[in-house]
Amino acid sequence: RRRGTAAADDDDAPTADARALDGDGDRDDAARARDADADADADTTRDAKRAKVELAAGGGARESVGAAPAPVAAVANALAGASGGTVVVHGVPQSWSEREFGAFLESLGATRASYRKKARWPYGFVTFGALADRIAGEALLHGASVQGRVLKVSEAKPRGGGKTGADGVDVSGMSAAEAVVAKANANALRDIRDVICPLWNVKYGEQLARKKEIVAENLRAITRAVRNASQKARKQGRRFDVEWLRSALDNDKLACPLEGIVRSPVLDGYRNKSEFTIGPSAANEPTVGFNVGLFREGVTAVAAPVGCRNISSTAKFLAAAAETHLRALAAQGNGLPVYDKRDATGFWRLFIVREGGMAPESEHGWKHWLRPGVGPPKPEVGNDGKPIEANDKDVTPFEYPDEEASLPAPTTKDAHSEVMVMLQVRKEGYDDETIRGACRGMLDALEAAAATASPPINLKVCVVQFYDGLSNAAPDDAEIRNLKTDAPSEKTMDVIHESMCGLRFSLSATAFFQVNTVAAEALYRLAGEWASPNGKSLLLDVCCGTGTIGLTLAKDVAKVVGVDIVEESIKDAFVNATLNGVSNSDWVAGKAEVAIPRILNEYKSLIKPEDGARRGMPSVAALDDPDMSADEDTEAALQHQRTVLNQTSVEYLYDDVVAIVDPPRAGLHRQVLVALRRENRLKRLVYVSCNAKTMADNVIELCLPQGQDGNGGGVPFKPIKALALDLFPHTEHVEAIMLLER
User: Fold this and answer.
1) In what order do the strands lie in the sheet with 480-482?
2) How far is the CA of 427 from the CAs of 5, 431, 622, 673, in angstroms?
3) Environment class of residue 229 by beta-carbon count within 10 Å: exposed (0-12), middle (13-18) or buried (19+)?
4) Mind giving me the DSSP string for 36-64?
5) How much is the pLDDT for 26?
6) Model confidence, pTM
7) DSSP for 490-539?
8) Residue 58 has what pLDDT?
9) How would you classify the pairing of strands 149-150 and 496-500?
10) 472 close to 344: Cβ distance less than 8 angstroms
11) Are 243 and 381 a contacting pair, CB within 8 Å?
12) Cα 142 from Cα 110, distance rounded (Å)
């Protein structure tokens, strides 16, 4: 499963491409534009002279009346970590495409980092790299005339209505330019805890209640969608009964029972991987930490992870050592610059710490950590459907359960505790000798710090990744070299190891692995119990990553077949299978929507039919694409098994098909859903999700009756039960797991 490579995977502030707006969909953008429109109506006249621009219909010639320079005095008061941010331009012709909008900005001479505009939008978004560009751009745009309409400019609202450091900043009496700078400065000085672990000061019992409710609301969304579709079908003369719908409507509209939330056994320092940004602080000092905001919000400042409860003490210690080294070099005037997103320059970009063998062991199963996740009772509703206001004097304050106790934070335990550090640097503009010298100096500083740590840190692997792109998310084939040998990194050698569910996993620099080891162990054991495979099941591990789920269940099934789009993850899965002596598994690299139908077709004659009827045997075992085929030994074994079956005609290799899907935040591709639903011998499916919203969307597709009799495209699944799981304490993220049967 790939979660992206943001600051700390799922729960840290995401990195933003300095040249492209990160879009979350038309509805979010429209809502932000409407919110900003109200602000724009209240804007005061700009101090700078406005540019008057007239474009003829169809994008004809323009008439420029003048342009104002950026107010130098206002920008002089800006902090180093403050940047331009994003504005909404209102009054843009709806007929304009994004290209036409860009041409208009170009004709004005507005210097910007990126822009966004779709047909039928009466507005457009513009992101500026520098504050001076933002102030000058607003002066050019606000009040300009286009096809008889006067443009208005306002600050873009955060997606989802989130808060920023600029909330509550008093800008009364300031000019427009001074207000922009004041808000940008406030954003650059945000408390890093509010960005990385925003629930750091919320009692853990309350966190659990909030997260359980997120999953509950998405279970209600499933019920609403299926109910509405059923009603629509009846109006069209297609009548089919959804047997579970009535009980769901009687159970707070939950599609299935929500059995609680599994809390994290560890609350502090639980992350086994931390991805730190290297960049300038608000005071323009080299810093190793996290971005305090997004580029599109006008923030490039980096702050040290002080007080971030989810980051391990080991990661904080090494990040501080790297920061001390960079600042010492900067003070001497000898160091290479840190990366600056505003102009995409600099050398040092990322500092990634991975840890293995440090998590505490839990002697309890997942049920020990199961909690009801109860929150305040819902207000009573009157006959009019509106909540009845209670007398405050009669209301007893709700007390959340005390859940602050936990297992100890991960730390060095013994020789099996291992640490890997990966640097990401930018090669462009630097010769090989300079790069080697800078990296060697960092390695020496880290090794010296690790030796003085208490307890000592076993810094087993140090590598450097080279990447000159704009965002921090380097491609899977980006060059990685061993810092000690300066040789290309060997994937099977430059690894550390982590233990979970009685297995040992090899982790390379870019391999995906759940960041909360103890909580992930509870998740995988739970998924295995719910899947309930028998000794003759064929288990499909969809979006398998490095094979963690499939390998933990391999002993309980006849065969595991894992699929993942990331080829490097599949290589790791083969390594982990060999490391643990698991021989009944195969791992396929490719898009799940392509691979799953082919795998099901490949194995269909080996799976016992529902009616017990004998089916013909295929003549070949290999898949069409040799890159997606099993190894020769596996293929030979399958061919032999087919030969035996042809001779005996009594037994099948597999009694049934069980699937566990663990997709990225975007959910499963529609073609994967189609393939899973069409395989009628697939009776049980466990859906593991890091995004309850996309899980709900996918489950609707799997459970919604289709066709005239409701069974079109395969018999629909039925929601059986669900649980919330907290793998990311002190953040707003929650894991969900759901069992479907048919």
Assistant:
1) 302-303, 286-291, 273-280, 348-356, 418-425, 459-466, 480-482
2) 20, 8, 43, 42
3) middle
4) HHHHHHTPPPPSSPPP-EEE-TTT--EEE
5) 44
6) 0.81
7) PTTTS-EEEEETTEEEEE-TT----SBHHHHHHHHHHHHHHH---TTEEE
8) 36
9) unpaired
10) no
11) no
12) 12
Q: What is the full DSSP assignment across 118-148?
A: -TT-SEEEEEESSHHHHHHHHHHHTT-EETT
The yes-or-no answer on residue 138 being catalytic is: no
Residue 434 one-letter amino acid: T
* DSSP secondary structure string for all residues of 683-697: EEEEEEES-HHHHHH
Catalytic entry in 256, 544, 690, 703: 690
Q: In sequence order, what E strands does 1-108 have?
A: 53-55, 62-64, 85-90
pLDDT for residue 269 is more than 80:
yes
For 675-732, the pLDDT digits (tens) are 999 888 899 999 999 999 999 999 999 999 888 778 888 999 999 999 999 999 999 9
**Helices (H) and strands (E) in the chain — how many of each?**
17, 26
N-to-C CA span, the chain: 26
| 116: nearest Cα among 36, 23, 17 | 23
Q: Is there a catalytic annotation at residue 433?
A: no
Confidence of residue 611 (pLDDT cuts 50, 70, 90): low
Summarised one tens digit per residue, pLDDT across range 568-586 is: 889 999 999 999 999 999 9
User: What is the Cα–Cα distance from 176 to 172, expressed in whole angstroms?
Assistant: 10
Q: What is the pLDDT of residues 395-439, one digit of tens each?
A: 678 889 999 999 999 999 888 899 999 999 999 999 999 999 999
